[in-house]
Amino acid sequence: MFLTSARKLRELGIIGMNQRNFGLISRYNPRHLYPLVDDKLKTKLLAQKAGITVPRLLGTVSYQHDVRLLRNILEPHAQFVIKPVKGSGGKGILVITEHDQNQYFKPSGEALRLIDIERHVSNILSGLHSLGGKPDTVMIESLIQLDPVFSDYSYEGIPDLRVIVFRGYPIMAMLRLTTHASDGKANLHQGAVGVGIDMGTGAALHAVQFGKPVSYHPDTRKTFAELSVPHWDRLLQLAAACYEMTGLGYLGADLVLDRDQGPMIIELNARPGLSIQVANYAGLAPRVAQIEALTTINPEPHERANFSKQKFSVSAKI
Fold it and tell me: What's the predicted TM-score (pTM) here?
């Protein structure tokens, strides 16, 4: 990313892991609030209570002896997503886009049998993908439908938008585009493309894959020069509203655009990673400093979103 020394990184305002952990997470995120976002079921219920759209819950599996109920849960649904309730980093998520009798097809076209899905669910329950390896619960959700605006910018999956929210103000955003390498998951470590987004307009700024700059999608070959996120105001307002919803001062809000239902929240993170700085070619520190300098926090999410649009807009494009 940044070819440089520690001094140059400081000049660029890059926040490192220690600064994130002690200056942001420990300081602004009370530990007793972590379960609200570490448990995806609790997050979903919080969002619904706040009137925020989330993917529909199709079912849950909590115990190993309930794995045998999977057939009945999955039978009515041609498409669905299986997630560990306490997973992180996209681990353990299984996306099924087609169901034909005893075969279930992933976005890549790979076919799975019911026994394969049962084994996957059993592994989740045993804690294979959970934080700390503790026993987990399985959540089965409706599959988000790709908004046509992203059809040329994502492959075998649904892109999502990560927004860093600090004291209720959205301060940096990144679009994560699925690829064949990422197995249709919006996970940068697995090969998704991270696209820095202009906070003022929703337009693409820079893009990276595996930490290296790219100018077009590796599978569709579509250039990012014309990419712009629609419903930008609404997405920023939803992200800002997560502050009231959770009480967390520093969080990552993951949002998607559904073809039929529009903007919705899919996940919140009390310990968001720092790769968003790579995608934006910019550091979080100057933006954090501007928010810390505020003597009062505006109580209205839409006003905080408007503040961020004005303060953190940039002029550079790809």
Answer: 0.91
Q: What is residue 71's three-state secondary structure?
A: helix
Domain enclosing residue 298, as ranges: 6-52+146-311
DSSP E strands, the chain: 57-61, 80-84, 94-96, 98-100, 103-105, 111-113, 138-141, 160-166, 169-177, 193-197, 204-209, 212-213, 250-258, 262-269
Asked whether residue 118 is domain-assigned, the answer is yes
Q: Is residue 131 classed as helix, strand or coil in its secondary structure?
A: helix
Please say whether the beta carbons of 228 and 201 come within 8 A. Answer: yes
> Do both 215 and 265 map to the same domain?
yes
State how far the Cα of 185 lies from the Cα of 201, in Å rounded to an integer.
Answer: 25
Q: Are residues 134 and 153 in the same domain?
A: no
Q: For residue 257, give the nearest of 67, 53, 37 by alpha carbon.
A: 53
C-alpha span between 15 and 272 (Å, rounded): 12
Which CATH number goes with the domain that contains 38?
Answer: 3.30.470.20
Per-residue tokens: 104: 């279930």
In a domain? residue 318: no
d(C-alpha 84, C-alpha 79), whole Å: 17
Cα dihedral sign, 287-288-292-296: positive
Could you tell me whether strands 94-96 and 80-84 are parallel, antiparallel, or unpaired per DSSP bridges?
antiparallel
Residue 227 near residue 195 (C-beta atoms within 8 A): yes
Three-class secondary structure of residue 203 per DSSP: strand
Q: Tokens 């307009």 belong to which residue?
A: 201
Q: What is the pLDDT of residue 7?
A: 63
Q: Tens digits of per-residue pLDDT, 110-137?
A: 999 999 999 999 999 999 988 778 899 9
Q: Does residue 163 lie in a domain region?
A: yes
Tokens found for residue 150: 């992203």
pLDDT tens per residue across span 180-218: 998 888 889 889 999 999 999 999 999 999 989 999 999
- Candidates 83, 228, 107; CA nearest to 178 is 107
Counting Cα atoms < 13 Å in the Cβ hemisphere of 171 gives 26
Q: What is the pLDDT of residues 23-46, one digit of tens each?
A: 999 999 999 999 999 999 999 999
Distances (CA, A) of 70 to 106, 115, 301: 17, 10, 40
